[in-house]
From TrEMBL:
Main location: membrane
Pfam families associated with the record: Tetraspanin (PF00335)
Family statement drawn from the similarity comment of this UniProt entry: Belongs to the tetraspanin (TM4SF) family.
GO cellular component: plasma membrane
Database matches in InterPro entries: Tetraspanin/Peripherin, Tetraspanin_animals, Tetraspanin_CS, Tetraspanin_EC2_sf
Organism of this sequence: Patagioenas fasciata monilis
UniProt membrane topology term: Multi-pass membrane protein
Cystines in this chain: 149-167
Alphabetically ordered keywords of this record: Cell membrane, Disulfide bond, Glycoprotein, Membrane, Transmembrane, Transmembrane helix
Stated name of the protein: Tetraspanin
Compartments where found: Cell membrane; Membrane
Assembly mode: Forms homooligomers. Interacts with MEP1B. Interacts with integrin alpha3/ITGA3. Interacts with RICTOR and MTOR. Interacts with ADAM17. Interacts with ECE1.
Transmembrane segments: 12-35, 55-75, 82-106, 204-229
């Protein structure tokens, strides 16, 4: 086609088709998790984590729309669609960069907020409502799985709710550094709050890698779309 590079056009189409497929997968899986109680149980997703699933539904929808605009814009050589794709992708990139900067600037506030959240959870360990009891049952499973006890202060976080079955540590079959004594019982030494923070730190590099990977793909999309847009304009 005169004035427009076929290589650029179909490269743009393939790029956006893969973009659209990724959005479809994210959207489909997120909706399945959101509506299926069996999926939530299998993946151990609690009600307070559903906000993250809702966010993934929104992200999947946006990626699908942008992928559609990019595909149609490339095939139909529509400057309007390509421009909308470019603007949408640029806004997402700006939001990512802004989020990263704000995360770095307000790191101390985020850590304080996390500590406050853990403190509220400590109160739930000592509560007596039905919601507190459900939380306590689920948390005991978490303690046994991760070999930790309490959230901030170990077994003391359980208060009057502490008993012989709470985060019991088998001294014979465990490492000596894993257990400690509390009120005459062997319990896990490490607070679960530390386990959670260690998990976040361990996966932070993975999250940063994904973020940089997405940023690279978005910049590639911006270059493709603007190059094609300019070629169509010169046609």
């Amino acid at each position: 086609m005169a004035g427009v590079s076929s290589c650029m056009k179909y490269s743009m189409f393939i790029f956006n088709f893969l973009f659209w497929v990724c959005g479809s997968i994210i959207l489909g899986v997120s909706i399945w998790i959101r509506v299926s109680e069996n999926a939530q149980q299998e993946l151990q997703i609690e009600s307070n984590m559903l906000a993250g699933v809702d966010l993934l539904i929104a992200v999947g929808s946006i990626i699908m729309v942008l992928g559609f605009l990019g595909c149609c814009g490339a095939i139909k050589e529509s400057r309007c669609m390509l421009l909308l794709f470019f603007i949408g992708l640029l806004l997402i990139l700006i939001l990512q960069i802004t989020g990263g900067i704000l995360g770095a600037v307000y790191r101390s506030q985020i850590e304080t907020s996390l500590e406050e959240t853990l403190q509220r959870s400590v109160n739930s360990l000592q509560g007596s409502t039905q919601e507190d009891k459900t939380f306590q049952e689920n948390f005991q499973k978490f303690e046994n799985t991760n070999q930790c006890c309490g959230l901030l202060n170990g077994a003391a976080d359980w208060g009057k709710k502490f008993g012989p079955n709470i985060c019991a540590c088998d001294v014979k079959n465990s490492s000596p550094d894993l257990c400690t004594t509390y009120k005459g019982y062997n319990v896990y030494k490490t607070p679960c709050g530390e386990v959670m923070l260690e998990y976040i730190k361990k996966h932070l590099l993975i999250i940063m890698g994904i973020a940089f990977g997405l940023a690279f793909i978005e910049i590639l999309g911006l270059v493709f779309s603007m190059s094609l847009y300019c070629q169509i304009q010169r046609k």
